[in-house]
Amino acid sequence: MGVQERLSLSATSANSLIAAEHVHRYRLAARLCEGMRVVDLACGSGYGSAILRETASAVFGVDNDAGTIDTAQATVGREHDIRFEAADALELLRRDLAGEWDAIVCFEGLEHFPQPDEALRQLARHAGAGLKLLISLPNSRTFEERNEFHVTDFGYEEAREAFGALGEATLLYQHNAEGSLIRAAEDGEVEGEFVLSEYGEPEYANHFLALVNFDERAESVAATARMNLAVAPDYNRHMLSLEKANRELWRENARIGRHRIGQGDAAAATTLYRLREHERDQAERIAELERQIAHLNARLETPRHRFVERAHDKATTSPGAYSLARRLWSAARRR
After folding, report:
1. Per-residue pLDDT band at 137 (split at 50, 70, 90)
2. pTM (whole model) above 0.90
3. How far apart are CA 244 and CA 264, in angstroms?
4. Taking 80 as the threshold, does the pLDDT of residue 302 lie above it?
């Protein structure tokens, strides 16, 4: 499966888990950086810069890919008062930013830098000059994520060590959590309750975040949630389709299996004819089931997200039904 390294503008508006968690981080940053002049380091398509600009007094988006910056300038930059620049992150960090800027936001960036230790030293230098830092790292080591674009894979200990180099930091842990929504036909207020906190193991967070120099603003962040409400109905529709396809496939294979029971050698030709008669329908049904599974898997881009998907599968699908159906069909074809 390909790795999507820069979330496009259209992807951020999609009803997907990866979009919800990316936007969630920037919404938190926008709240913390209200009224500030912010550098959005490794800004990608600029969707996060636009979110920051909703509350920040100024935003400067930087990314090392010139084509991505051209697109950001032509889209986000045209609609918002945001400056974009194609530049190497480390070269930018070596500049004197204090006085012109108040905060640096760098989400999902450090793991890509060829010299992460030097980047951390430069970030610590800016923190010492009074700039506020908001940094995030993916927990790719714990989930054994294989990403050709990552220079460094961070886990819990590696993230804590990296953040420790920034000075006194407030650490936050972003989890993909389960939830329930009760709503009327019309939109209304959404309230949340923080439960099962003892299971919020930081070692298994999907992302780690560090806040530096935010002082009292950091103290206001205990738990924050973002629920992409459009995901649930969309997911439910797909799961119902999968379950229906599973049931139909199981019934059809069971019926073919029953036809074979009690048949002697004299009936071999008849059996073969019956099997071939249904082979095309079976292949089409399995292909449709696999397309639906592939569509669901494509919605989640990394092992961190596929881990959540597997948990859903265990809870919502009939155990072993699909594999049993495939074995029956394969056996029928061989005979």
Report:
1. very high
2. no
3. 34
4. no
